[in-house]
Amino acid sequence: MCFYVRLSRALVGNLLTRIWSDLVDSIAMCKRRCIYRCGMVVSGYDDVGPTNEENINMDFDVDQSDLANQIEDKPWYHKTDRRKAQEMVFSGGNGCFLVRPSSKHALTLTLWYNNRAYNIPIRKREDQKISLGNRKPNEKFFETIEDLIMFYHSEELILFSRGEKTGKCALRCCPAQVSKVQRHVIIELMPEYIIHI
Q1: 113-122 as b/e: b if 16+ CB within 10 A
Q2: Is 18 exposed, middle or buried (0-12, 13-18, 19+ CB in 10 A)?
Q3: What is the pLDDT of residues 97-115, one digit of tens each?
Q4: pTM of the full predicted structure?
Q5: 55, 114 in Cβ contact below 8 A?
Q6: pLDDT attached to residue 37
Q7: How does residue 143 score in pLDDT terms, banded at 50, 70 and 90?
Q8: What residues does the SH2 domain cover (predicted)?
Q9: How far apart are CA 158 and CA 166, in angstroms?
């Protein structure tokens, strides 16, 4: 009899711990959503660093059309709009990113950091190298977009808003990786209820 009491006490304790953990996670997610939505209403976005007036040219004379063709099969590339991209990276937290088509540029890097999304243009330079944001003196450049992603996966990207530095963040994960982790956690918690996710 004592064995069953101890076993049921342990099971109830574990169940309460899981419920508490889920409740705390839900509250944190609601808080992040509120901060995100309020931030979208209040702030205007300018996610590239300060530039001099003579450097504003975005290399419009360079053909940017083939950039997306290089990365269509990558898990971090999503054919989505700005709003949906911001919702997708929000779910992954700081460092969650994706690359998407843009209405103003060939491609945009959307990155979540510190309760907001940053939308940073990706462009091809005149020398066919890849760079972020507006043209700058001594800017970092890469052979391919994949090289750019790999570099900022290990090095932090300096982020700006309205010409002011707001922080540094590395590219940690993409929404496809986040959904795989969430799927794994759900299967671990409720394997008997999962048919196909």
Answers
A1: bebbbbbbbb
A2: exposed
A3: 999 998 887 899 999 999 8
A4: 0.61
A5: no
A6: 61
A7: very high
A8: 76-152
A9: 8
Q: Which residue has the tokens 């901060």?
A: 35
Structure tokens at 182: 């969430």
Contacts from 65-69 at CB under 8 Å and sequence distance 24+? 65/106, 67/106, 67/107, 67/122, 67/124, 67/130, 67/145, 68/101, 68/106, 68/107
Report d(CA 105, CA 148) in Å as an integer.
17
Give the pairing type, strands 116-124 and 107-113.
Answer: antiparallel
Which value, to the nearest 10 degrees, does the dihedral of the CA atoms of residues 177, 179, 180, 184 take?
140
Amino acid identity of 19? Answer: I
